[in-house]
């Protein structure tokens, strides 16, 4: 490891839980927009396959179309985070909040780590945030999903303009 990388690793600041939640809130809006777009694509595909008009009160996505639509939205969610975390370690929200996801050793996150972290983070979220509040007790302020996926979020220094 180079001397610069070692000094950066030693001077690492860890983000607060509030900063993490703020980035999650910001990303949620981006993912919502992508999921709406994907649902629109599925509605368009359904109308090509079954051009019959909808009956009054009928949902555009129902029956056999619900599962593929859900799977597409799930893949959109996983694809969004995997792409950004593996490519640069940052989503748009993470850039705005100066957060970066790296492996515990400071290297870029792998696809399997990104999927594991995201799956565990979702479980943490649906377990009333238990895995997130683990960060209050961890010396490096890692959430439980960070610890289990061998990753960490670091707080980047402000860039001078």
Rg for CA atoms: 19 Å
Poorly predicted tracts of residues: 1-11
Strand content: 5-15%
Q: Name the average pLDDT.
A: 88
Total count of strands:
2
Main structural class: mainly alpha
Question: What spatial form do the alpha-carbon principal axes imply?
Answer: elongated
What is the end-to-end distance?
29 Å
Largest sheet at a glance?
Answer: 2 strands, antiparallel
Helix run count:
7
Query: What portion of residues is helical?
Result: 55-70%
Sheet with the most strands: spatial strand order: 1-2
SSE topology string: HHHHEHHHE
Word description of this protein:
- With 161 residues, this protein is mainly alpha-helical.
- Helices cover 58% and strands 6% of the residues.
- It contains 7 helices and 2 strands; from the N terminus they run H-H-H-H-E-H-H-H-E.
- It has helices at 3-10, 17-49, 66-87, 92-96, 111-126, 130-133, 144-149, and strands spanning 99-103, 151-155.
- A two-stranded antiparallel ribbon has the order 1-2.
- Helix 3 crosses helix 5 (111-126).
- The longest helix has 33 residues, at 17-49.
Secondary structure layout plus pairing:
Elements: H1 3-10, H2 17-49, H3 66-87, H4 92-96, E1 99-103, H5 111-126, H6 130-133, H7 144-149, E2 151-155
Antiparallel strand pairs: 1-2
Helix pairs in contact: 2-3, 3-5
